[in-house]
TrEMBL record:
This is Autoinducer 2 import system permease protein LsrC. It comes from Labrys miyagiensis. Part of the ABC transporter complex LsrABCD involved in autoinducer 2 (AI-2) import. Probably responsible for the translocation of the substrate across the membrane. InterPro entries: ABC_transp_permease. Keywords: Cell inner membrane, Cell membrane, Membrane, Transmembrane, Transmembrane helix, Transport. The lineage of its organism: Bacteria, Pseudomonadati, Pseudomonadota, Alphaproteobacteria, Hyphomicrobiales. The complex is composed of two ATP-binding proteins (LsrA), two transmembrane proteins (LsrC and LsrD) and a solute-binding protein (LsrB). The chain crosses the membrane at residues 20-43, 55-74, 81-100, 106-128, 135-156, 176-197, 227-247, 267-295, 307-327. Pfam families: BPD_transp_2 (PF02653). It is a multi-pass membrane protein. It is found in: Cell membrane.
Length: 341
């Protein structure tokens, strides 16, 4: 190859990669997020206030972390309706321990919260991967069991910031490099889980399972084991979120995060994760979570009825499901015309 040809080839590659990125789902979602922010700020300039943006970012981190696990579950053609109850259980148990041991290490608090989440996630894994109960049925049952269990454990108690050490609340209030540790933690999880899903064998297997479960089994992929991994991972992320929830809001009780399952499913689906499995990314789910919290903040700032938040999410979910349903039908029609199976 001549030098000119090499230079041309080298010059074409970045352009093709840039075109590929701008044509991606994530780029379109970022554009949609930007347009939503502009629309809200035009109507309500307070949206661009630095303090307001910081509060939006902090609230978004909690939804985003759980949405990452939910997105991977949906990619693998599963779902978890018990995420809110797992967050509540992890938040209350860890905060309760810290209230009883105000001089205790925050590392222990995180270990307790994450362990609770992993344990509850393993319970879901046993039901779905072990006993082969459909995920929507199993997690609907554990939603009631986990929520009821933590309500009984709490006994009507509420743990407030006044009985917790200042170091706990400082986790959310302090700044490192201009941002809260919650934001940096969320960004790190997005990058790590995104890389694992894209570049590891386990990640590729999850996409294969979501695309064609029977075909994945025929190819020798341990489907049930991978599904168990996903539920345990989702539980661990819920446990981490529970600890961060207490640091963010200060007050913890047994009924926090009642709508988290709807929020995270919405974030994943709006973020381009196909509800039929096998398609989407954690990057899109993270952007979907950002869209959700921006819309929520915009509704509050504009003084609109809070009813519009779940209504908008419902419309977005239905529109996305209809879109992917039509896309699947067109793909199947195209394959049948070509005579491919």
């Amino acid at each position: 190859m001549s030098e000119q040809a090499q230079q041309a080839s080298a010059g074409q590659k970045p352009r093709s990669l840039s075109r590929l990125w701008f044509a991606s789902r994530e780029a379109k979602l970022l554009l949609a997020l930007l347009l939503i922010c502009i629309a809200i700020s035009v109507r309500e300039p307070r949206f661009l206030d630095l303090n307001n943006l910081e509060q939006v970012a902090l609230s978004g981190t909690l939804v985003c972390i759980v949405a990452l696990g939910q997105a991977l579950l949906i990619v693998g053609r599963q779902i978890d309706l018990s995420v809110g109850a797992m967050v509540a259980a992890s938040a209350f148990v860890s905060a309760d321990w810290l209230a009883a041991h105000p001089d205790g290490s925050l590392i222990v608090v995180f270990l307790i919260g994450i362990s609770i989440g992993v344990l509850l996630g393993a319970g879901n894994a046993v039901l779905v991967a072990g006993l082969r109960i459909p995920a929507i049925v199993a997690t609907l049952g554990t939603l009631a069991i986990y929520r009821g269990g933590i309500i009984v454990y709490a006994g009507g108690r509420q743990i407030s910031a006044t009985v917790l050490p200042d170091s706990y609340g400082n986790i959310a209030q302090m700044h490192i490099g201009g941002q809260s540790p919650l934001v940096w933690t969320t960004l790190a999880l997005v990058v790590i889980l995104g890389w694992l899903a894209r570049f590891t064998r386990t990640g590729r297997n999850i996409y294969a399972i979501g695309s064609n479960t029977e075909g994945a089994e025929f190819a020798g992929i341990a489907v049930r084991r991978h599904i168990a991994y996903l539920f345990v991972l989702s539980g661990g992320l819920c446990g981490l979120t529970g600890v961060l929830w207490g640091a963010r809001f200060g007050t913890v009780d047994a009924i926090i995060a009642p709508d988290l399952q709807l929020q995270t499913i919405s974030a994943a689906v709006v973020g381009g994760v196909s509800i039929f499995g096998g398609s989407g990314s954690v990057y899109g789910a993270a952007i979907g979570a950002a869209i959700f919290v921006v819309l929520q903040n915009g509704v509050q700032l504009l003084g609109l009825d809070q009813f519009w938040i779940p209504a908008l999410l419902g419309v977005a979910i239905l529109a996305t499901v209809i879109f992917y349903s039509q896309l699947t039908r067109r793909s199947e029609t195209s394959r049948s015309r070509k005579g491919t199976p």
